[in-house]
Amino acid sequence: MGILASFMVPHPPLIVPDVGRGGEEKVRETINAYEAVAREIAELAPETIIITSPHTTMYRDYFHISPGVGAEGNFGDFGAPRVKFDEVYDHELVNQISAMAFEDDFPAGFEGERKKLLDHGTMVPLYFIRKYYSEGDIIRIGLSGLSLAEHYQLGIYIKEAVEALNRRAVFVASGDLSHKLQDYGPYGFAPEGPVYDQRIMDVAGRAAFGEMLDFDDDFCDRAAECGHRSFVIMAGALDGVAVDAHVFSHQDVTGVGYGICSFYPKGADPDRCFLKQRLKGLEEERAKSDGYVQLARASMESYIRNRKRLRVPKDIPDELRSVLPEEMFRKQAGAFVSIHKHGELRGCIGTIGPTTDCIAEEIVNNAISASTRDPRFPAITEDELKWLEVNVDILGEPEDIDSKEQLDVKRYGVIVSCGGRRGLLLPDLEGVDDVDTQVSIALRKGGIDPDEDYQMQRFEVIRHT
Hints:
The protein is of the alpha+beta class. It is about 35% helix and about 25% strand. The protein has helices spanning about 15-20, 30-45, 90-105, 120-130, 150-165, 190-205, 210, 215-225, 230-235, 275-285, 290-305, 320, 325-330, 360-370, 435-445; strands spanning about 1-10, 50-55, 65, 70-75, 80-90, 110, 135-140, 170-175, 240-250, 260-270, 335-340, 345-350, 390-395, 400, 415-420, 420-425, 455-460, 460-465. Helix 3 (about 90-105) crosses helix 5 (about 150-165). The model has no long low-confidence stretch (mean pLDDT about 95).
């Protein structure tokens, strides 16, 4: 049958009466909405209830799906040990999702469980569901530190696995909204808090799932939300499907946002394949790249796919050679190649000054180094290539400066040096908004203490995208 419906729900233990002890009445609107959702799930009579929770086992680079026959849990950590759960896992569906992910070398599976007991991000939804519906196995899935696009892709695997087994399933995306909505709240206030809540509730109300992928990580961190990645997995599980969305409630009276929505599939809709749309957009942007970036990409792809280093100019394809300016083969300069995936840095290596006979060779070498030898990241794999964005910075000649006043973070990069140690930071980088931050990062990269006697140079770059 597939996924019958999906629900976006919060998980404050407060709303369980044995925990709240009367305090739950302040969020009565949320409780009433939860009751309505639970009744709808009971009417759907699913065979499996899929729950994504930010409070179960979580890894930076892996999605954990709880293994085994089942798990128990209670609200003892919140003063209500008598509220207990004994749930059975749909291990067949767990195995199906894991097998699909393994076949595609996607980082999801049932390895690495750290805590078998059910977490409150799972138990709060189950508390309401089990009041009205005692049947149905569950699946419990954690979030990760991976990109939003990869969370969405996990949702696609879940959808495909459910359909492959012909399961009647509902998807419950457990997650609170911003934790920084009120000064009196337990986490205080941040301006991004109300903005996040307003934005996510608008997106959910319109079922504009593609827009969920556009939320910036720094913005989400400042808003202190805990459910966004859970919601994105849910969105992926409805990929390519028309959706009837309904907002039940949104409250912020505790200083934490609680939003409840339902999403019912209404048939196939190819215009709602949001990850494919994003990939198509990347391909269109790559087609607009100039010759410098195209050469960096060609070098990277040749090495990753075939372990072949492009020789300049002998191995450069004629169609690429025709768009490369002659100065690339006549001039020398330092060059940095920066690689991003889903908006996050995936590799960056460069040279402060020329180390080869020409700029083209500098780019070819540094593209290989950035994609396979940046010590901060594992080597890029072939399946990642389609998602990568590449920039090339050609460095101008460094000039000595006497003080920070001669820097401009938008115009100049900085080189700091002390003895044989050097640190460099390129100009116009996201998140580097002032000179003090720029110099501080460069010092850290060079292993130089701010109290040491160091020298500074500035340089300009020509950035190619």
